[in-house]
């Protein structure tokens, strides 16, 4: 979440048509994030809205490039949250999720947590989790 620069929805998704071109406020840093439309968003997946984190996801990088969005690298070369992460700087990426969830709960901003499947890139020689830095 800390590297998010926009929220994308499918341009034909009736639920969100009136939101395209508007903005949301990032819950951790107060930045204004645009709501954009992109044909690659699957309106049937999850809520139909996708947070765009271009520096850490290849698909999001392509969306950001199409929409002239910035990238924000928030995980440093050692796997810790960078100084761009305000109060979360220095937390290891594997511990960051629980910390962020706790803060969202404290702010009353967490509605639910639902599992979903996704592919994690694993480097075969060491079976290590690879991280994307675009």
Automatic annotation (TrEMBL):
One of its GO terms (cellular component) is cytosol. Transmembrane segments: none annotated. Pfam families: tRNA-synt_1_2. It comes from the Eukaryota. GO terms for molecular function: aminoacyl-tRNA deacylase activity; ATP binding; valine-tRNA ligase activity. GO terms for biological process: valyl-tRNA aminoacylation. The keyword Metal-binding does not apply. Keywords: Aminoacyl-tRNA synthetase, ATP-binding, Ligase, Nucleotide-binding, Protein biosynthesis. InterPro entries: Leu_tRNA-synth_edit, Val/Leu/Ile-tRNA-synth_edit, Valyl-tRNA_ligase. It is an enzyme of class 6 (ligase). Residues 19-79 form the Leucyl-tRNA synthetase editing domain. The keyword Kinase does not apply. Its EC number is 6.1.1.9. Belongs to the class-I aminoacyl-tRNA synthetase family. This is valine--tRNA ligase. It comes from Cimex lectularius. The lineage of its organism: Eukaryota, Metazoa, Ecdysozoa, Arthropoda, Hexapoda.
């Amino acid at each position: 979440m800390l590297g998010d620069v926009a929220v994308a929805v499918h341009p034909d998704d009736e639920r969100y048509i009136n939101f395209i071109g508007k903005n949301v406020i990032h819950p951790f840093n107060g930045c204004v994030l645009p709501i954009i439309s992109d044909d690659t968003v699957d309106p049937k997946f999850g809520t139909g809205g996708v947070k765009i984190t271009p520096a850490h996801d290849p698909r999001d990088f392509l969306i950001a490039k199409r929409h002239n969005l910035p990238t924000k690298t928030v995980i440093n070369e050692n796997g810790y949250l960078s100084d761009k992460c305000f109060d979360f700087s220095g937390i290891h990426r594997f511990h960051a999720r629980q910390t962020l969830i706790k803060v969202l709960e404290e702010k009353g901003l967490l509605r639910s947590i639902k599992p979903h499947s996704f592919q994690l890139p694993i480097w075969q020689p060491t079976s290590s989790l690879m991280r994307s830095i675009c």
